[in-house]
User: Which sequence fits this backbone?
DNA sequence: TGTACATCAGTGAACGCGCGTTCACTGATGTAC
DNA sequence: TGTACATCAGTGAACGCGCGTTCACTGATGTAC
């Protein structure tokens, strides 16, 4: 419910031994751990506190309410996905068109892979607790990774200049849709390859379609 | 939790005046109504019963548990979307390529439109309570509408034969992703037009992409 | 048609539960002099 | 360095709440003869 934002507080690792050290981080970590096991809908503040080994009320010194913790967890999970994506790209170095395309595909495949490996965290990242603002403004890591990958594809001549401005939106939609539908078992996992092929075709073509 | 399926029971409109008449339908209708207002996460069986004007335990004569009601509601909401889509297509009759394309776009636009008009019902249709089976097998109404629209597009020469087998999957992913991301305010509503353009391009091209 | 009975869709009280949040508190840590 | 005090991150008991589900029940409806 509440719209207040999470207090920034000590981001740096506080020294251990002082009361708890860094309860905020600990709560976040364990919240994500429990969510990834049971889903957001089955998470309670008290569970998190218990897991961390702290009384239920302690959390209120770090988050105004449960919602704020969940929003922080959602944002954090989103960054986790970015890390996962970065790792998946590292096997494909170089500036060739081939390398750029392989990195691009790895980005999409890892997006879906993260969703499959961590379905509950993926669901958490989107929907009600989605931070929104920062991502809509293109400031999130996954978005930045996508922009960078498309820039490289463009530099390698794999994207038609007329299409480039719409590329992020198209790619994100198609991959996000694929991830969601595969998660819901509405599409087979194999569909992803077809989708990636189709995306590449769209990006490379001139952007003209028959008479309207 | 439970995996038991909803008892079929009297699908036909039972005569009013007998106890309740058709409590199963009434529960379903009011569950959807409440969900569309407050979201699934805020729905309780007791609320639904109260809204219908029946005791909380009455529901158990029609659904084994709350989960079963929610799954039935999810399925019903999905069919609602199909109705919404059908209505949106009716302005574009004819067998010309132009008409087929307009109907196709109307299908995508109405998908997103339904999501925006009924965000909670849209969210309900996918995710945890998604029936899965029937849709995965392509038996759901929205899927059938998509297949029909693509067949018409194909007949009108707007889809390259090599692409046709992958068309459903590509289109559904891209549109579903767009709907979800627009709902989460991660993409502007205007992005949909670009995406539809890109989809049409993909469908019409030959399916070949540079050396891999 | 009338009666006896089985079926079935409701009631309403009760259950035990875990939840988010509050409050007054405590005691460790940090700081000013 | 030592002391007095302010700050702050914890505790733990308590709150009121609405929840899903159960149970024995009731009374209306349908049915066999």
Assistant:
């Amino acid at each position: 419910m509440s719209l207040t934002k999470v207090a920034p507080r000590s981001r740096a690792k506080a020294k251990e031994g002082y009361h708890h050290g860094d309860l905020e981080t600990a709560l976040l970590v364990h919240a994500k751990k429990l969510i990834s096991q049971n889903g957001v809908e089955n998470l309670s503040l008290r569970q998190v506190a218990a897991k961390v080994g702290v009384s239920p009320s302690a959390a209120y010194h770090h988050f105004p309410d449960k919602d704020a913790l969940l929003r922080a967890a959602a944002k954090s999970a989103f960054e986790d996905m970015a890390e996962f994506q970065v790792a998946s790209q590292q096997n494909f170095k170089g500036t060739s068109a081939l390398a750029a395309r392989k990195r691009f595909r790895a980005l999409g495949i890892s997006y879906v892979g993260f969703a499959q490996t961590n379905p509950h965290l993926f669901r958490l990242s989107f929907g009600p607790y989605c931070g929104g603002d920062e991502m809509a403004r293109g400031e999130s890591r996954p978005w930045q990774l996508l922009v960078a990958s498309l820039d490289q594809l463009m530099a390698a001549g794999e994207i038609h200049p007329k299409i480039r401005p719409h590329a992020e939106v198209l790619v994100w939609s198609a991959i996000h849709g694929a991830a969601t539908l595969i998660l819901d078992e509405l599409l087979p996992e194999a569909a992803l390859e077809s989708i990636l092929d189709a995306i590449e075709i769209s990006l490379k073509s001139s952007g003209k379609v028959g008479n309207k």
